[in-house]
Design brief:
Mean pLDDT: 95
Helix content: 10-25%
Distance between the termini: 46 Å
Structural class: alpha+beta
Number of helices: 18
Length: 890
């Protein structure tokens, strides 16, 4: 799979696709998509609009017939009937389009309500508490009714359709123009039924593809509304390293420039905006040498973005003011500000060249455009947000960069200008619970990259549990960015939280980074297909009602369904309960190893460290070694985790890579590495295929690591036909075993990427026949560990009984001696029963036992023995609940 290369956009359709009838013109773009124009002056529009930039599509087969005044157009999917009345305007009685949906005819007329529309997205979630948003969700391109219509009648146009920018900053820069005067209609009919992926794939052909962000965007971002100094940022970056938390992006909020006492001081600038809300000059007190600071964090692998509120224009105190004023014909001696006029091409060109580009040369990698002020522009029906997104994104293209922007959604067509900043939400469980649905639904308009304030924005502190669950959702989101308001109680450093929350969050960050090859490949597939890798279930299972009602779940790339925990845990058990719907097929709950056959709805319980991720049985998931930031070193070895599969099953995945430079990926400068797996009897056969494609800096040799979770240890392992030995030390060629997850790990030395590497892992037939004993083992071990920890912290000299320690030590014993797996798992039911009985006895004794004498420590602690006793009983009850949740199958 090589994907889709850059294509020239041509706004005017092929004449062969066009049918003109009086005041109307119909353009057959695809068998399911027809453009319908009516113009009183019969002057039809061929220029690119804000949404539709390429109408030069391959002409689909269609027929047109005329019976009197009635025109009929037939495609393979649609029948359009137009019988003009009066001036020929499209009305309920003059125009219809019919299609078949699940064997039934569906007929559309102008003015019909799209009751089944699956919605799109909205500009911002500012001030939102859960699904109570300040702004309504816009309609999407998909509908359960089988059709959707985009009304493009009043959107502005571009004066050019050349968006290639091949000449760099001397390229033509397409600019906004208003539509011609006169009454007109310009409608696009999408009649794709429930072929949602096809609809989106065709949409990005006519509306532009969803660009691939730089690889670093898929790392973690630190953000906080706070006036940091460069020293504080240095300490913060050191904290990430010291606490083993990876980091790629520092988001520097508005405190980077002078704020003159803050936006709420009541002082106004010349534009009438709060003085200091807009700024383009580093605060010299906080950043005495900005370039040196930015150079330093770049050497540590960290990118930087600055917050912009360009509402106030360029004021006299800015470093760039003299040059900008002269360029705009203002005498700097007058100290008159330069108004912000983004639709004036002269202003925009000078603004980027004289104000922003110098900051980029100092080391700013991209911009956070936090625009909210101006509501209108001189061009009618032009969204300020939309236009600023276009300007900033295309300016980077003209500079020859891989463009990336961080701003709010501006409306249809803005899928071309990632990444979205969803705004200032309220820090409550309801907000977290709303975000999976909201993020997935944005795919219905091609918006693939929402970035949420992980932890919420305001008003202050969040509980460790809520923040942990939000982090876990963020780890399986398009973008992982923590943020909060300027409240000292709002803590976002994960290492500042107590255990087990801090460790659970750290594991989520590290899981995010381990999945970078998968994420980046899925982002490339998003570019190729128009289908966001984070999308609703109904794209893949459109006829299953649960795919529409399971709003907390989403598809995450080719192989996964994620159902993040969005409700607090039960206080008595310490476990959070979620109802999960899984569609037809075999699925593996990644963190527990539990196998589940769909379609089914299951109630599952999750401890604080567990994230409900469901992977297709047999799927190959590419991963990478541990790194401090995404580009710290080459992905070597390439890690492939192969989920358990049934005998005879096969799977394959192609891993995408590129140089990360500019937009070379659009011109085919990239590579795809096929990795496949199959099971034949007792053997799992794995192959890394020769690489296809090339790009500058590509690895010529690479190691490989195969992981087979939830499996019996091998009796033999062969690499390219040669036996390899057991090797307990990680990283050395050979195989080893992780007993806590029953994972076989095969490490293969470096081989040329142009050669195939095969790995065959064979297991004992007697053990393979006992596969049922493997089911959910990793989850059981997690419960055993958690139960032991709870008992040991129950207080009043309560410790885990030997039987429980024996149980939870099973993982270690298996790691040290994989050949004992058959014997160890056979003992599991008895070990479990003994441990449960012993903990239940502890609980009975705790209920009846009188408190012992007070110790010095307890006196200092000032907590009554009665409270300690109650805590002990509650803790033991929780441990029992955890153990019961991990009962072995009978």
């Amino acid at each position: 799979m090589f994907g889709v290369a850059r294509a020239q956009t041509v706004a005017a359709a092929d004449p062969k696709a066009v049918v003109v009838e009086g005041h109307a013109r119909f353009t057959v773009l695809t068998p399911e998509m027809i453009r319908m124009e009516w113009a009183a002056d019969e002057r039809f529009e061929d220029r690119a609009s804000m949404v539709f930039v390429n109408r030069k599509m391959p002409v689909p087969e269609f027929t047109q017939t005329k019976h009197g005044e009635e025109l009929t157009i037939h495609t393979a999917a649609l029948e359009l009937v137009y019988q003009p009345e009066g001036d020929g305007k499209f009305t309920e009685t003059s125009l219809s389009i019919s299609l078949m949906l699940n064997g039934k005819a569906v007929v559309w007329h102008p003015g019909m309500v799209d009751a089944g529309n699956l919605q799109g997205t909205t500009r911002t979630l500012d001030g939102a508490r859960g699904d109570k948003t300040r702004e309504p969700i816009e309609p999407g391109l998909l509908s359960r009714d089988g059709w959707a219509v985009v009304d493009d009648s009043v959107r502005p146009l571009f004066d050019s359709d050349d968006f290639s920018f091949k000449g760099g900053e001397s390229s033509v820069w397409p600019w906004v123009v208003e539509r011609g005067a006169g009454e007109r209609q310009d409608l696009y009919f999408f009649g794709y039924g429930h072929e949602y992926k096809k609809a989106l794939g065709d949409y990005v052909q006519v509306a532009g593809r969803i660009p691939l962000p730089p690889r670093f965007a898929f790392g973690s971002w630190w953000s906080r509304y706070w006036s940091y100094s460069d020293q504080e940022f240095d300490r913060l970056v050191d904290g990430f390293k010291n606490y083993d938390v990876p980091l790629d992006v520092l988001v520097i909020d508005m405190g980077w420039h002078p704020t003159f006492g803050g936006a709420h001081s009541g002082v106004k600038d010349q534009a009438g905006q709060p003085k200091g809300w807009t700024g383009y000059t580093f605060d010299k007190l906080l950043f005495p040498q900005p370039k040196e600071f930015l150079d330093k964090i770049h050497t540590e692998g960290v990118k930087a973005t600055l917050n912009l509120h360009p509402a106030g224009g360029v004021e006299p105190w800015e470093d760039a003011y003299p040059a900008m004023a002269k360029a705009m014909g203002v005498d700097p001696a007058t100290q008159k500000y330069v108004p912000f006029e983004p639709t004036d091409k002269k202003f925009a060109t000078n603004y980027f060249d004289l104000v922003l580009h110098p900051l980029e040369k100092q080391g700013i990698d991209f911009w956070w455009l936090d625009w909210q002020q101006q509501k209108t522009l001189p061009v009618a029906n032009l969204s300020v947000t939309w236009w600023l997104n276009y300007l900033h994104f295309t300016d980077q293209e003209r500079e020859g960069k891989r463009p990336m922007l961080f701003h709010r959604w501006g409306g249809l067509g803005n899928h071309r200008y990632q990444i979205g900043f969803s705004g200032d939400t309220i820090s409550v469980w309801e907000s977290l619970a709303f975000q999976p649905w909201f993020t997935a639904t944005a795919a219905n308009v091609g918006y693939a990259y929402w970035s949420h304030d992980i932890g919420g924005h305001m008003p202050g502190a969040v509980t460790p549990e809520l923040y942990t669950r939000w982090i876990q959702f963020g780890a399986f989101s398009p973008i992982l960015r923590t943020h909060t308001t300027a409240n000292p109680e709002s803590e976002r450093r994960i290492w500042a939280y107590p255990e087990p929350y801090s460790d659970s969050m750290r594991q989520a960050f590290q899981m995010r980074y381990a999945l970078q090859p998968y994420l980046y490949t899925e982002a490339r597939r998003t570019y190729d297909t128009g289908v966001a890798f984070f999308h609703p279930l109904y794209y893949d299972w459109p006829e299953a009602s649960e795919a529409y009602t399971s709003k907390n779940e989403y598809v995450y790339g080719d192989s996964m369904i994620v159902a993040p925990v969005t409700t607090p845990a039960d206080e008595a058990t310490g476990l959070a309960s979620e109802d999960v719907w899984l569609p037809k097929g075999e699925w593996v709950e990644w963190m527990t190893g539990k196998k589940i056959a769909g379609p089914v709805t299951v109630k599952r319980e999750f401890s604080i460290g567990q994230i409900p991720v469901y992977v297709r049985a047999g799927a190959v998931v590419p991963m990478m070694p541990k790194m401090e930031y995404t580009g710290e070193k080459p992905v070597d070895p390439l890690i492939a985790t192969v989920m358990p599969m049934t005998d005879g099953a096969k799977s394959r995945y192609e891993v995408y890579e590129d140089s990360g430079k500019a937009e070379e990926y659009k011109d085919g400068m990239c590579s795809w590495t096929g990795i496949g797996a199959m099971r034949v009897g007792t053997k799992v056969v794995f192959a890394r295929l020769p690489v296809k494609g090339t790009f500058p800096g590509m690895l010529t040799t690479r190691g490989l690591e195969i992981r087979l979770p939830g499996d019996w240890p091998p009796v033999s392992v062969k690499v390219n036909g040669k036996p390899v030995a057991y090797e307990k030390e990680a990283g050395l060629p050979g195989w080893r075993y992780d007993g806590s997850t029953l994972t076989t790990i095969v490490t293969v030395g470096s081989h040329p990427v142009t050669e195939m590497v095969s790995v065959v892992v064979d297991r004992s037939p007697a053990l393979v026949a006992r596969e049922a004993e493997l089911d959910g083992f990793a989850g059981k071990m997690t419960r055993f560990y958690d139960a032991g920890d709870v008992v040991n912290h129950a207080g009043l000299s309560t410790y885990a009984p030997d039987s429980l320690i024996d149980l939870l030590q099973m993982g270690d014993r298996l790691t040290y001696a994989p050949d004992t797996a058959g014997v160890e798992l056979a003992r599991l039911p008895l070990l479990y029963k003994t441990a449960l009985d012993d903990v239940e006895k502890l609980e009975v004794n705790a209920e009846s036992m009188k408190p012992k004498a007070v110790t010095t420590v307890e006196q200092v602690d000032k907590v009554s023995l009665e409270e300690r006793g109650a805590h002990r009983v509650a803790a033991l009850k929780m441990a029992i609940a955890m153990l019961k949740d991990a009962a072995p199958a009978k």
